[in-house]
Amino acid sequence: MKNIISSIIILLVGLLSLQSCLKEEENIFDKSSAERLMEAQAEYDKLLSSAENGWAMDYYAGFGEDRIGGYQIICKFEEGKAIMAGAFTMGDYKNLGEKIESSYSINRMQGPCLSFGTYNKVLHPFADPGSISDPYGYGGDFEFMILKASKEEFILKGIKQKQIIVMRPMKAEKDWDQYCAEVVELEEILSNYTRFSINKSGQHVGYTTMWTGDYEIHDTDRPDIKISKYTVTNESINLYDSLNISNNVLKRLV
């Protein structure tokens, strides 16, 4: 009987100790996980809304290294509403720069996630299935992990296909229709050329070759050619991967 009572006392002491430890762990944070998540969501939402004229998105779709794009999508965020316009036409999106409204939310999946929940014919067609035999279509995403967030840049990663998507704030005075028209104009100019001289501080450092039909660029002078996809903005070429030309790392060409 004494052994039974001793065992019960030891068990009760152990349970009290465990309860004490749990209480200590609960007090590590001043706020609950739900409160911290709500605060993080509010902060991301504030940053998204901070770009008064919206963001220019370098959008890529595709599977692994076999990616397609890039495409310029303009996004403006405000109180759960996203307005998008594309510097391209595709499928049912037939009018260059047409503004389409849908919803967005910030939630938590593998981490903080930006999700476009209602269908937007600028973005979602990249993620639509092609057919019964082609369930993945272009391999696009409409849900993205937020890897980095600031007023200067958002770096996102597609939940399914893992492509890196970058958003930068539009210039405050820039008209969206004019921006889209200038992107198309620069793409048309680039299509007339294939080989470019790269200059740094007025000095020639090497050459690149572009395949404009595939949005690909590579270092002409390297024996082990490194190829990168790219996106055309109204004034630059933004590379998906960095290129190294004569020990100069290139990520953006103006």
Describe this structure in words.
Strand 14 and strand 15 form a beta hairpin. This protein has 254 residues and is an alpha+beta fold. Residues 8-13 have low confidence and may be disordered. The strands form 2 sheets. Strands 4-3-2-1-9-8-7-6-5 form a 9-stranded antiparallel sheet, sandwiched between helices. A 6-stranded antiparallel sheet has the order 10-11-12-13-14-15. It is built from 3 helices and 15 strands.
In short:
With 254 residues, the protein is of the alpha+beta class.
Q: What shape does the CA trace take? A: globular
Radius of gyration: 25 Å
Helix fraction bin: 10-25%
Give the helix/strand class: alpha+beta
The low-confidence parts are 8-13
Strand order of the largest sheet: 4-3-2-1-9-8-7-6-5
| Major sheet attributes | 9 strands, antiparallel
Measured by DSSP, the beta-strand proportion falls in 35-45%
Distance between the termini: 87 Å
How is the secondary structure organized here?
Elements: H1 2-26, H2 33-49, E1 55-63, E2 66-78, E3 81-86, E4 100-103, E5 105-108, E6 112-115, E7 143-149, E8 154-158, E9 164-169, H3 176-190, E10 195-200, E11 203-211, E12 216-219, E13 227-232, E14 237-245, E15 248-253
Supply database-style keywords:
254 residues, 9-stranded antiparallel sheet, 6-stranded antiparallel sheet, 3 helices, alpha+beta
